[in-house]
């Protein structure tokens, strides 16, 4: 019998968290039991997802994910808070990237 990977309690970064689609996606991931990091260019755009959830479940970060330096700092903050990153999902294209930590940073 093939065992399937469980994403329950996975740490998921949701980019485009400042958009309606991003906020919906983040809420859906939270409802599914994931720990979620909502990323938007401006913190105020991502903060509303935090309401009603504990700091153990969700955090918001203001960052431009297209900037390598900001991305690296974002992953460091998430790893410091939650211990790992399991997936990165963008609301714009509904695609997921699975991130692995390397000595030099992250690779998708």
UniProtKB/TrEMBL annotation:
GO molecular function: oxidoreductase activity
Alphabetical UniProt keywords: Oxidoreductase
The UniProt record lists the keyword Oxidoreductase: yes
Pfam family, one: adh_short
The keyword Oxidoreductase is assigned to this record: yes
Homology family: Belongs to the short-chain dehydrogenases/reductases (SDR) family.
Name used for this protein in its record: SDR family NAD(P)-dependent oxidoreductase
Organism, as annotated: Mycobacterium yunnanensis
């Amino acid at each position: 019998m093939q065992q399937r990977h469980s994403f329950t309690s996975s740490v998921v970064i949701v980019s485009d968290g400042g958009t309606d689609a991003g906020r919906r996606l983040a809420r859906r991931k939270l409802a599914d039991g994931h720990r979620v990091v909502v990323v938007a260019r401006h913190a105020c755009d991502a903060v509303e997802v935090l309401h009603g959830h504990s700091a153990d479940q969700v955090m918001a970060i203001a960052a431009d994910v297209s900037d390598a330096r900001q991305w690296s700092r974002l992953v460091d903050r998430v790893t410091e808070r939650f211990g790992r990153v399991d997936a990165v999902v963008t609301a714009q294209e509904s695609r997921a990237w699975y991130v692995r930590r390397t000595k030099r940073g992250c690779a998708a």
